[in-house]
Specification:
61% of the residues lie in helices and 0% in strands. The protein is globular, with a radius of gyration of 16 Å. α3 packs across α4. The chain has 114 residues and is mostly helical.
Length: 114
């Protein structure tokens, strides 16, 4: 995963509609990226990178596509979660692994992709 989101269990319980809406929006964005070329994506996001030439942005996006670095769904698989933790440990941001089954809640992601 290139991005992960977290919230307290109490917040999720009290705001399920917000969590589902946010997850639906993430999935909609993932589908848009999947259905467009690197050049099309670069044109849309170029305003967020004003100091980067369109050609370089397009090449960067294409390289992510070439290595299949973008997820097609918001579902966080255990293998991906473990890779994320290894990256965080390598960066000195995580001292020990967290258990997937205690941390990850794919309920809203599964609902979004229906």
């Amino acid at each position: 995963p290139y991005t992960a989101y977290f919230a307290k269990r109490s917040y999720i319980k009290e705001n399920e509609d917000i969590i589902q809406g946010f997850t639906n929006a993430v999935y909609k964005g993932q589908m848009w990226v999947k259905e467009h070329t690197a050049a099309e994506i670069a044109e849309v996001i170029q305003n967020f990178f004003p100091d980067t030439k369109l050609e370089m942005l397009t090449r960067s996006i294409q390289s992510y596509m070439d290595i299949d670095a973008w997820n097609d769904t918001p579902v966080l698989k255990e293998e991906a979660f473990n890779r994320l933790q290894e990256v965080m440990k390598s960066a000195g941001e995580l001292s020990q692994n967290a258990p997937y089954d205690k941390i990850v809640n794919n309920k809203y992601a599964q609902e979004a992709i229906k």
